[in-house]
């Protein structure tokens, strides 16, 4: 709800935005609609109706991704304003903002109360603006529909950074020794079965020949079709490694971005880890799931060939794809370019 974002900005006296040319987002011949946003080139402080117009403008920027960029500029500016006015250290003002947010914004269940949003706000006071990054998932035009966007191959890198808790800015701490696959083992925690007091799994796997494994082909992605026969190839490799009960799923190919080994109950956790180990799959890809009835190796789009899982390179802090349109929260010099038909 944009109105909720506007109400928070109004509470601090408005938010500064900027355009490189005069802009007027209005109906044009053959292009109805428009937000009504009209302002001269340069920086402007917007609030109320004008702030709402900024957030809703699309035609004047030229595309939906550019509208997202304008919204990200607005959000970064609002955070800078909140911090400059010490709102995050003012308990009364922060509580008012939290109450406004719960009434007008859709938030995750984990932070869906005034108290939880207030606590989140108190944490934000310790986060420098140069550690805040607004970004967009890289996309490409759908060849079958020019009005539809598909995830670009670079999007996988961004998802990997999120999964591995790699900072979007280059000021994040470097990965410590023992991260990557080793960190995955720690991160798996209880999800990979119970552990004893020494921190090691308490359940031991059965003999390889006694472990049943169903292999599914999920190599189809948003941009590539499935690899034919992939489930049979990996199942055959497992059999060669001693997993005599490994079989392929003969149903139609699925789509999974990353390879995963799923298991239904704690007593099979050790067996699932053993399957992952045999194929070189990292321990953090072993997950308990109610969607399977036995150990299931899902061969994802990240493993389209070969019988040993390819080692994954962990991205470095700040190593975002160039197509992610990243905006750092401390950058006060960004302005939106206006699509020529909407200049005046």
Radius of gyration: 25 Å
Mean pLDDT: 87
Bulk shape: elongated
Characterize the main sheet.
5 strands, mixed
**Tally of discrete structural domains:** 2
- Provide the CATH topology of the largest domain: Aminopeptidase
> At CATH's second level, what is the architecture of the largest domain?
3-Layer(aba) Sandwich
Give, in spatial order, the strands making up the sheet with the most strands.
9-8-12-10-11
- Which spans have pLDDT < 50 for at least 5 consecutive residues? 176-201
Sequence of secondary-structure elements:
HEEEEHHHHEEEHHEHEEHEEE
Instruction: Give the N-terminus to C-terminus distance in angstroms.
Output: 30 Å
Helix content: 25-40%
Reading off the top of the CATH hierarchy, the class of the largest domain is best stated as Alpha Beta
How many beta-strand elements? 13
CATH homologous superfamily of the largest domain - what is it? LCP protein
Strand residue percentage: 5-15%
Structural class determined from secondary elements: alpha/beta
Number of helices: 9
Describe the structure.
This protein is α/β, with parallel strands linked by helices. It has 9 helices and 13 strands. The chain has helices spanning 2-10, 48-56, 64-84, 91-104, 114-124, 155-163, 181-188, 230-240, 269-279; strands at 15-19, 23-24, 38-39, 42-46, 133-134, 139-142, 145-151, 213-217, 246-248, 260-263, 286-288, 296-299, 327-328. Helix 1 crosses helix 2 (48-56) and helix 1 runs antiparallel to helix 4. The longest helix has 21 residues, at 64-84. The protein is elongated, with a radius of gyration of 25 Å. The chain starts with a helix and ends in a 16-residue tail after the last strand. 28% of the residues are buried. The model is unreliable at 176-201 (pLDDT under 50).
